[in-house]
Amino acid sequence: MALLAGSYERFLFGYQLDGQVEPDAAVEQAEKPVLQRTFTHAAHKGVVKCVATAGQYAATGGADDLIHLYDLKNDKDLGFLMSPGEGAVTALAFFTPAGAYNPTHMLSGSADGSMSVWQAGGGWECMKTLRAHRKEVAAICVHPSGLIALSVGRDSCLRMWDLVKGRCTFTAKLEVEAEAVEFSTEDGGTRYALLCGTRITLHGVQGEEGLLCTLDHPRRALCMAWAPGNKVVSGSEDGSLRLWDAQSGVELLCIGRAHTSRVRTLALLPASSSDSRLLVATGSSDGSIKLWDFTKAAAVGAPSGDGGGSTACLAEVHTRARLTCMAAADLPEAMQQLSQAAAQARSQAAKEQQQAGKRKAEVAAAGPQKKNGKRARAGAQPQQQQQTASQAVAGGGKPKAKPAAAKGQSAPADSVVVHDGVVEFLDAPPKQQQQQQQQQQKKQKKKKAQAASQQGKQLAASKPGLAAKRGKRPAA
Question: What are the boundaries of the signal sequence (predicted)?
Answer without folding.
Answer: none
